[in-house]
Amino acid sequence: MKIKCEATKTLASALAFLLVLVTLVEYGFADIKVETDKYKGWQEVLVFKPVSGTHPIWCGPKGIIITEWEMKGNEAKEYYGGIVHINIESKKKTLITREILTKNPFCNYDGSFVFYFQWQEDPKQHERMISGGIWMHDLKTGKKRKIGFANPDYFKNPASPTEKIFAIVGVDKKYLKLWRENLPDWEILFFPKDKGEDKGYGENRWANSGDYLMLHIIDYRIRDKDSLAFYNKKGQLIRNVLLSEVQPVRLNVMGDGVYFFRKDGRLRKLDPWSGAIEDLPLQVVISKGFNFQFDASINREVAYTRNDHKIGLWIDSIPMNKAQEISEEGTFPVFSKSGEYIAFIKEAIDPNDPHSFSRVLVVMKRNSKMTR
């Protein structure tokens, strides 16, 4: 009887484990091993697959938005799985939308709402897309509604990371009333599209501190006159800096300034308040044609992809002047606002099919600050 009882317990445990495993695989978690143990200051807390090759987006302190994909065998065909929200602690996955013609998802400052752009087809010209609408998804209730119109090229991340401020860029003035009606509790900073002018807008980015907004101003007549315009959270111009003076290969907007790399691989920082440019003690090799990506944290650490022999992910502490590899492969690194977590994308082989690979989302949590 005792042997039978023990066997029953073993069978029950196995079934319970199998149920958990099936649940994890169904929701895309934890069935791929990722080598991320080189950097002792960080530990892996989540692996989610399959995802697209675009950067993850933090949504509040413990949430991430990612575009989900499916990869099929050697042909590596991608099937759109939709925009999803993941809670990195509970590992709960929430589907935001499966609409194919969507892009540029982002969140409000506390991660309670997810916004995304959805294209609309022109019924007169089936293959032509026209400016679509911005949708707002309430993570608490699951309800969604259309809140306005915008051009997706300008609509990157208009919501302030610290309060209810929305920057509407490159939109016709006739839509301003609609935006204010649909977001009555929000302050709207409006940068309208002026017809007939020779200038337009590139992407817009908020500093992670919420103190200022950066707009890329494009001069259609003279490209050397393209500039970066900085506005405070009341919409007042702080400074306008010619892009030719900065010459960034990649840039990232932080609370204490704009971090950017030039072609020589040297990291620099632009202070939008004074206009001063500071050389920082970090230089990397930026190969021609290499899709270089980086992000900076509140702790003045810089995570970047390094292309020596393969695409490795490194973190460099500027105060310590010390760098360390955290993953042999990794792109699109993104620190959480607090600097406690870092998320990135990497490719991994499916253990069930050695000929198939997936792009996976990896999230790591800080154990301690980098020390010498």
Helix content: under 10%
- Give the C-alpha Rg: 23 Å
Order of helices and strands: HEEEEEEEEEEHEEEEEHEEEEEEEEEEE
Structural class: mainly beta
Total number of β-strand segments?
26
- Taking pLDDT < 50 over at least 5 consecutive residues as the criterion, the unreliable ranges are 1-27, 29-37, 73-78, 125-129
Q: What is the general shape? A: globular
Main beta sheet: 4 strands, antiparallel
Cα distance, first to last residue?
Answer: 60 Å
How much strand content do the residues show? over 45%
Q: In DSSP terms, counting alpha (H) and pi (I) runs of 4 or more, how many helices?
A: 3
How would you write the strand order of the largest sheet?
1-26-25-24
* Mean of all residue-level pLDDT scores: 76
Report on the structure:
The protein contains three helices and 26 strands. The protein has helices at residues 2-26, 176-182, 243-246; strands spanning 42-48, 57-58, 63-72, 77-87, 93-97, 102-107, 113-122, 125-138, 144-149, 165-171, 187-192, 199-206, 212-219, 227-232, 237-242, 250-254, 257-261, 266-270, 277-283, 294-296, 301-307, 311-317, 322-327, 331-335, 341-350, 353-366. The strands form seven sheets. It has a four-stranded antiparallel β-sheet with strand order 1-26-25-24, with no helix packed on it. Strands 2-3-4-5 form a four-stranded antiparallel β-sheet, with no helix packed on it. It is globular. The model is unreliable at 1-27, 29-37, 73-78 and 125-129 (pLDDT under 50).
